[in-house]
Amino acid sequence: MIHDLYEVIHRRRDVRGEFTGEPVPDDVLDRVLSAAHAAPSVGLSQPWDFVIVRSDDVRKSFHQHVHAERETFAASLTAEAARRFARIKIDGVLESSLSIVVTYDASRGGPAVLGRHAIADAGLYSSCLAIQNLWLAATAEGLGIGWVSFYREEFLRELLGIPDGVRPVAWLCAGPVTHLERVPDLERHGWRQRRPLREAVHADRWGGS
């Protein structure tokens, strides 16, 4: 059981081009969302909601926006970086079976959320924990997940009718895949390399060894 958990953690990938487009069975989607909803949250506020997007029109509108933002980012790069970026697929919005938009509602849990008084972002972190649960559960179910971050929050809020005060945290493409790459895309395409664990661990204080 423990081995299975570690295997899922290390097998998980940010999927772009491997979606098959086959439907996600309702019971599988329910298990994945249940795992997300079981995430820990500050003050048991459960500040997340999940918008399931299947509409082709909505996904096409979002896809157009994403690629406009891609061009904006590409224009900010050096020539060498732009060449590397051109090889990288940034989304599977149209290829995936459906999308799941995870939101964060800071008002959830009332005006006094236990544990959030000193760290305002603790609620946002809670929504991110729900996303991680969702991602790992989807991987265990044989699904791929791709987190799309090339968008403006205002655009997505208007596109999906998300109320004021509720933040869209993640657009997640989801669905069956042909396979999961052994090496993450950004490493395979030479964008960045993963740093060793030893460089990220400090003893007692920053820089301690």
UniProtKB/TrEMBL annotation:
Pfam families: Nitroreductase. It is an enzyme of class 1 (oxidoreductase). Transmembrane segments: none annotated. Its EC number is 1.13.11.79. Residues 9-175 form the Nitroreductase domain. It comes from Actinoplanes lobatus. The keyword Lipid biosynthesis does not apply. This is 5,6-dimethylbenzimidazole synthase. InterPro entries: BluB, Nitroreductase, Nitroreductase-like, Nitroreductase/BluB. GO terms for molecular function: 5,6-dimethylbenzimidazole synthase activity. Keywords: Flavoprotein, FMN, Oxidoreductase.
